[in-house]
Specification:
584 residues; alpha+beta; D-Maltodextrin-Binding Protein, domain 2; Dipeptide-binding Protein, domain 3; five-stranded mixed sheet; 26 strands
Length: 584
């Protein structure tokens, strides 16, 4: 199968551009245990926090859950390949079968072996929890103790990441409930009609299930006795196959950015994936931290409500807005000089992914919408607007809009405020309305906005997810009375009709990348011409790492730094495989 992320040279060049240089150690004494890795994560404290990891309101340890319940493999973005965790080998057999062979000798923390049955049980519970994997998977079965067969009903390359990044849970913990699921399905019962009540009862059982202990196959274990309001401790799993892990313990401090910042500055936390304001970042650099600026493959973008504001239905208006906003300025205001790159190619996917999906001649033809007020003015005039004073008007009405921003997103608020200031200066009078993220999402779904700052791109290596997020997730409401952004999903570009819903489906269909690339190219070219959304900035991480407390921190040419750090954590992988260790 042809791989699309194999340009390692390009990837490593990007690393050099997006990572800050390593700070010199100051050799200050650490008030920490040298055999412990200290991180941070905003987990839920018991009794709300619990050990049923199928239910999202549990402890919810994010990237660190891989230290307890690893997935089959982890993706290495720069190489477009996977590195096995519990899996020894994996791949397609024909068009409708995917096969995974587990590593021999893997064990759970009670000394029992990790087998194919654990994978089958994980997916039996996954049916109850509506795993996205079942968009593509028909059945999951074991060929032998170490081999799992996934029969596909909808073959797609998209299924590989879902299967390999699903964390595997222990049959010893969830097997009894999984057996009820299997018996229900083997009896040919219907989940939707006559037997729905029985299915719902099994689903309620898994939702209410609270294991007393967690069986771990990763290098560490977790006991609720080690969880407090302030911190939790992961202790070494003596049975784990990941014996290379060098830390005896991993301690995670609880809290969001504001709570953990003092702990970073006191050097009581070594690493965290939080977004820190520029003054905090400078203080951490002064304290001896390295700031890692790995890609997120996404960022804040300007979304239009096509139905509520008819002016946005005119492509010339949307293009004028793109020309009228200095995206470099938005990035500098929101993320500083190093943690936000202005969107360049304006195709809806990360600029770093563009060479992997689009032919060079297509890339050369793209309009990058460089900051150009003269071009913006020309387009507004062509759209029938005239300038009266400092405001564009049409048919006697001033162009005035409201921009919705999530008030609790410390990076998106300044992005929205700066974009609004620039648009107002250009003549589109823009007022910012801030509301908590949960309310913002509800308002967007209901169509109760003019413009909104939302996520463009997506932290997934396949463009399917970015285009689905922008066109579908933010366009179609959850219920019939929700309108979303009302982006027309069928439009004509240069005389050719584009069905975006069909193209998005085609971009992920089948296990052959060639037709997928054709669909992605059509999506990218049409996006570039229509600008249904204006990407503003691609956020880079500004994640601090206290290198002076660690041995083995890889050099800047390591391809793992290109990973989306919140999806395939290189820090977690380096803890698991022993790359990182305590300072001797």
């Amino acid at each position: 199968m042809k791989r699309l992320f194999t340009r390692l040279g390009i990837a490593l060049t990007l690393v050099a551009l997006v990572l800050a240089g390593f700070a010199a150690p100051n050799n200050s004494a650490q008030a920490t245990d040298p055999d412990t890795f200290y991180g941070g994560w905003p987990y839920s404290v018991p009794p709300k926090g619990h050990l049923n990891t199928f239910v999202p309101d549990g402890l919810a340890l994010g990237i660190y859950q891989d230290l307890l319940e690893p997935s089959l493999a982890m993706f290495v973005w720069a190489q477009d390949s996977y590195r096995g965790l519990l899996a020894e080998s994996w791949g397609f057999e024909g068009d409708d079968t995917y096969v995974v062979t587990l590593k021999s000798g893997a064990m759970w923390s009670d000394g029992s072996p990790v087998t194919a049955r654990d994978v089958v049980v994980t997916y039996a519970i996954g049916r109850l929890r509506n795993f996205a994997d079942y968009t593509y998977v028909d059945t999951v079965s074991q060929r032998d103790d170490l081999t799992v067969e996934f029969k596909l009903k909808n073959p797609s390359t998209l299924v590989e990441r879902l299967l390999l990044r699903t964390r595997i849970r222990a049959a010893g913990t969830y097997g009894a409930i999984a057996e009820k699921v299997e018996a229900f399905l083997e009896a040919g019962k219907d989940r939707a009609d006559a037997d729905k009540a029985e299915w719902d009862a099994i689903a309620a059982e898994i939702n209410d299930y609270r294991p007393e202990k967690m069986l771990s196959s990763g290098p560490y274990t977790l006991d609720l006795a080690d969880v407090t309001d302030a911190q939790l401790t992961l202790r070494r799993n003596e049975f784990s196959i990941f014996k290379e892990a060098k830390f005896d313990k991993v301690v995670l401090y609880n809290g969001e950015t504001e709570a953990v910042t003092p702990l970073f500055l006191a050097k009581e936390i070594y690493y965290g994936t939080y977004f820190f304001p520029q003054p905090s970042e400078r203080a951490m650099l002064d304290a001896g931290f390295t700031i890692l600026r790995s890609p997120t493959y996404s960022g804040p973008g300007l979304f239009f409500n096509y139905e509520k504001v008819p002016a946005f239905q005119d492509v010339r208006v949307r293009q004028a807005i793109a020309y009228a906003i200095n995206r470099a300025e938005v990035g500098a205001v929101s993320y500083g000089d190093l943690s936000g790159n202005p969107a360049k190619y304006m195709v809806g996917i990360s600029d770093s992914a563009v060479p992997n999906w689009l032919p060079p001649d297509v890339i050369a033809s793209l309009n990058t919408y460089d900051y150009n007020l003269e071009m913006a003015t020309q387009l507004m005039q062509e759209a029938g607007y005239t300038k009266e004073g400092n405001v564009w008007t049409k048919d006697g009405a001033a162009f005035e809009v409201e921009l919705l921003v999530p008030s609790d997103f410390t990076d998106w608020v300044p992005a929205g405020e700066n974009a609004a200031e620039q648009l107002t200066a250009f003549g589109i009078r823009t007022t910012v309305r801030g509301t908590p993220r949960t309310q913002q999402v509800a308002d967007v779904r209901a169509g109760a906005f003019d413009m909104s700052i939302l996520l463009w791109g997506f932290p997934n290596p396949h463009p399917f997810y970015a285009y689905r997020n922008m066109y579908i997730t933010n366009t179609v409401g959850k219920t019939p009375d929700e309108k979303g952004a009302a982006i027309p999903l069928v439009q004509t570009v240069d005389g050719e009709e584009y069905d975006f819903s069909a193209l998005i489906t085609a971009s992920g269909a089948g296990i052959d990348f060639a037709p997928q690339r054709e669909a992605v190219t059509k999506l990218a070219v049409s996006f570039n011409k229509l600008l249904p959304i204006v990407p503003l900035v691609e956020r880079l991480g500004n994640t601090p790492l206290l290198t002076e407390a660690l041995e083995g921190v890889p050099s800047l040419d390591d391809p793992l730094y290109i990973n989306a750090f919140g999806q395939d954590s290189y820090i977690v992988l380096w803890i698991m495989d022993g790359t990182l260790g305590p300072k001797q």
